[in-house]
Amino acid sequence: MRGKLEERKTVEPPPIPAICDTFIPLPAGLELYKNVEIKEELPIPQIMRNRSVPVFSIYQIRFREGVEDVTDAIAELEDFFFRPGRISRVGNLRVDLEVRCEKCKYHSILKGVSQLSRCPRCGNTRVMTKRIRTYYTLYGDWEDFITVNKYSWYLGLPREQRHTGYIARGVERRASPFHLAVHSDRAFITSFLSLDWPTYIEWYTRPRQLGAIINVTIDRHGRVDNTFIQSIIKVHCEILGYIEAYLARLRYQFQVIYP
User: Fold this and answer.
1) Distance CA 167, CA 216 (A)
2) pTM summary value
């Protein structure tokens, strides 16, 4: 049936999530993984056909050999949608050492150091130390393609903790466009492409310290212009590509079963 499916195309994604077999052509000049920070090879999502992306899609994921308990698969697949879990799955582990010295008020985190007998500054032997497990990728400590490119907001809003993270003023909640369902021997990820996203999002690295603004261009009539549409399509496709890379890294077999 998939090979006989006629691709019905429209110019813009729907205003709200919808289950349909419609495809949206990539806007002219839009190239995936261009003008972003990327330090690895990421795939063009399997859902795409002839530079078009479906409004609604379903991935079927087969558990890899060795996954005997469905709860293990649930944990691995759910972790993609949360930064610490995702990066701990695909990153490398390094043990760091947090050091505090009351005598000279020294405080630092020494990367790759597992033990220390005296303060690096004053030589005091009575120092407090604490080992810290740090996961890192090519993008840095606790960073990956999604975090460095400020894409985490697309996994659902609000996305904040202790007044840090992504905040959209006046928006109580915007659910993730990706939905995970896990069964006894397989899982499914569905994705919805739509335009019901805030046009202004603030990203805070620390409480009350604005790190970046994700702003959508509004024309003089108050309408969202093509910049917004291109941004949503680009982020949607690139995150799907990263999901595929994540699944492959964890040795899951997957395929698009709709459309």
Assistant:
1) 14
2) 0.86
And the tokens for 50?
């002839």
Contacts of 130 (CB under 8 A, 6+ apart): 97, 98
- Please state, in angstroms and as integers, the Cα–Cα distance from residue 89 to each residue in 85, 115, 135, 137, 157, following that order: 6, 26, 9, 10, 23
Q: pLDDT tens across 204-220, in order?
A: 877 666 665 665 443 33
CB burial of 61-93 (b: ≥16 within 10 Å; e: otherwise) equals bebeeebeeeeebeebbebbbebeebbbbbbee
Cα–Cα distance between 94 and 201 in angstroms, integer? 33
CB burial of 186-213 (b: ≥16 within 10 Å; e: otherwise) equals bbbbbbbbbbebbeebbbbeeeeeeeee
Helix, strand or coil, per DSSP, at residue 82: coil
Extents of the domains making up the chain: 2-91+144-258, 93-137
Structure tokens at 43: 């795939």
Local structure of residue 256 (DSSP, 8 states): E
**Integer Cα distance of 243 and 76 in angstroms:** 12
Q: Is 249 helix (H, G, I), strand (E, B) or coil?
A: helix
Q: What does each C-alpha distance from 54 to 182, 200, 226, 227, 245 come to in angstroms?
A: 22, 25, 18, 19, 19
pLDDT at residue 139 above 70?
Answer: yes
